[in-house]
């Protein structure tokens, strides 16, 4: 069975199951940004320690991106997918027993290691079972899980933290992961040639790529930089906005939850709509539109932290979420469309390393900045604006005609 022989029904089933997995991964990451408010109180931590906790997951996640992608290409995406879900479920549950800052950092780091192979292996599955012209839409559906979860999490977190507490909450999330792992084992069926990590399809057999060649391709380095910058902005906002709104704008958790539903809805619409737009854009126009989006992000970030009211802040955040959604959807779509599916896992692992390193660096850096400037977030917002500018340059200088990998 080759890619073309995977029925539409099977493709849709795989897409639904992958969506559930992406949703669970996003749930844990987003809900930690709210749980950390209670965790810091229980463990008596300052802003710098909070930033380290939020960043420790991303360090493990980033470290595992390239090995996870290579393993998915070498041994089959389904095996790595199952391993990732099982491992992250175990360490999500173990988060509940953390008794100190050091214990929390170690558990969250190992959780990141466990989940690290999920994104490249699931991206490879999309490239394996979906034709090239449908991959942008499929990826946008995966990425829309982040927006949906961010819509649910604020209110869900406020309820769970107020009823069962953060420790029991993480046990429940870990149990859900075990269920999803079983569904993957039973229902995800891939083409036989993918199972051995060496597809015989026309697309893959026409281009044999050495892993090291990926690092010699200018496209890859532009994507790594762009990934780092846009995810620095994204995770910088996502990880610290709950704390910012509580400490600098005077909102309680429930009010924050309701306020964050608005940009969350925008993110869902933005990501899902972006997939359709990207699939129809002429070659070369996608990076221009991406650069324009980054410019808008920089302007809106400035308007956010200078906003005179919470209403204006949420309004600007809502609009910036739309542009971030487009860029975050565009970057993996470039990988899926420009590179052969035989090395999609490795390529996605490499470029996503940039994004996850940003997830590691940014929350921690913001924590140190907030402490250094006596609780002010102004320097942190300027840092995020700088990342938006660098992302513009990375996209505008992206040349997908360079390198032998792109002639497949």
UniProtKB/TrEMBL annotation:
It is a multi-pass membrane protein. It is found in: Cell membrane. The chain crosses the membrane at residues 12-31, 43-63, 166-185, 219-241, 253-276, 288-307, 313-336, 357-373, 379-398. The keyword Signal does not apply. It comes from the Bacteria. InterPro entries: MFS, MFS_dom, MFS_Na/Anion_cotransporter, MFS_trans_sf, Sugar_P_transporter. The keyword Cell membrane applies. Residues 14-403 form the Major facilitator superfamily (MFS) profile domain. Keywords: Cell membrane, Membrane, Transmembrane, Transmembrane helix, Transport. Pfam families: MFS_1. PROSITE patterns: MFS (PS50850). This is MFS transporter. It comes from Lysinibacillus agricola.
